[in-house]
Design a protein that fits this description.
Length: 375
């Protein structure tokens, strides 16, 4: 048995293995509603053997969308579509999970395939108008970006209410795992980082911690809560790994169960992880998951260029993380977890495959061996 394919219990939720399909925006929602695209996209990953399958960054307020195509959970009308996805993911043996997000000063952008920048007249011609955005200060992401309206104390109360309502809707939709997006330059990260906000570390952590507290209170005690952080800004004078360890300790005290250790994104590039982050080598963010796990004494999820099954298994056995998330590898091969189980010898009979495929594919393996195409 491998550690990767050993089930893991997180509060009252039990994942069949330690592989997580990372949240990945599809920019394919309509008015925040998931579509059949999301059902098939996420359904494939559940069939493909992931232990936990995440719905992408889903906006707690309409103005907190990155683009017009983001999924949303700001209205009760969003619940039914999300429930259909969650139900199907569960029917395939994976835990359905959702990432709650607010894009803050990185809201109101064009979809990546239309340039990933501020909305242009071409976008407006397609019916996609820019909207008013908010941030911890009025400092824009960069030249040419919309200047955010600074969030005042009364706005914080409104935002906390939006988060609470979104958490309740995530529960109503049947998700087992909830993650708060506090990474990649979006609202909560922009509060934390000295690049985007002012004040001491305690001042900057105050609002994100209030959100985590509100989420923990609204989310059932038997369900696990994750927080995704940008472990480092990797910018001179930015948020550091020491800051992340301090933040993780506070989150643990609130009842957060897992810190999902990403990095970057505080300035410039609009895409998820930073362009600048240290050398882009396989497992480049693993050292962050390792240090947070050791120093804040909390479970961590490692993500970022985890490419091979052996790499994932070794990260777990070395105690560097508790969960392994894959993003682009899952897009490339939605059956990555099933293939990893075979490669690591954890599924010789192909019993982890959906019944509809496994009974047939195990015979195919025999045939391939006879033909000398398998050892
Ligand atoms: C298409 C795409 C969309 C993404 N959307 C999100 C998102 O919604 N939320 C998030 O936290 N990260 C997002 N990311 C980042 C991934 O979750 C992941 O952290 C990153 O791709 C690194 O992992 P990988 O090397 O396995 O792809 C996205 C990445 C990709 C490729």
């Amino acid at each position: 048995m491998t550690l990767l394919f050993e089930p893991i219990e997180l509060r009252g939720a039990k994942a069949r293995n330690r592989l997580v399909v990372s949240p990945m925006c599809q920019y394919s929602a309509r008015d925040g509603q998931v579509t059949d695209w999301h059902l098939v996209h996420l359904g494939k990953f559940a069939q493909g053997g992931g232990g936990i399958v995440f719905v992408e960054a889903t906006a707690v307020e309409a103005r907190g969308r990155i683009t017009h195509g983001d999924t949303g959970i700001w209205d009760d009308a969003h619940v039914a579509g999300l429930r259909r996805v969650a139900d199907f993911v569960r029917s395939q043996g994976a835990l359905p999970a959702i990432q709650l997000a607010h894009a803050g000063r990185k809201a109101s952008m064009a979809r990546p395939w239309y340039g990933n920048g501020p909305l242009t007249p071409d976008d407006v011609a397609r019916g996609e108008r820019p909207w008013e955005i908010v941030g911890p200060t009025d400092q824009a992401l960069g030249d040419g970006w919309i200047r955010p309206r600074p969030i005042r104390p009364e706005d914080e109360q409104t935002l906390l209410a939006s988060y609470r309502a979104a958490v309740r809707r995530a529960h109503a939709a049947g998700f087992d795992v909830l993650e708060l997006h506090a990474a990649h330059g979006y609202l909560l990260h922009s509060f934390l980082s000295p690049i985007a906000n002012r004040g001491t570390r305690e001042d900057r952590m105050r609002f994100p911690l209030a959100v985590a507290r509100a989420a923990r209170e609204a989310w059932p005690a038997e369900k696990p809560l994750f927080v995704r952080v940008s472990s480092i800004d990797d910018v001179e004078g930015g948020w550091s790994l020491d800051d992340t360890v301090a933040f993780a300790r506070e989150l643990k005290a609130i009842g957060v169960d897992v810190i999902d250790c990403s990095s970057g994104g505080i300035q410039g590039s609009a895409t998820a992880a930073a362009k600048t982050v240290v050398a882009r080598v396989p497992g480049f963010q693993l050292p962050f998951a390792e240090r947070v796990r050791k120093e804040a004494d909390i479970k961590t999820m490692a993500v970022g260029l985890i490419i091979t099954p052996l790499q994932a298994e070794e990260a777990l056995t070395a105690g560097r993380a508790d969960l392994i998330a894959i993003g682009r590898e899952a897009l490339y091969d939605p059956n990555w977890p099933l293939h990893a189980a075979q490669a690591l010898g954890a599924d010789p009979e192909m019993k982890r495959w959906p019944l509809q495929y496994g009974w047939w594919l195990v015979r195919r393996e025999g045939l391939l061996r006879k033909l000398g195409l398998r050892r």
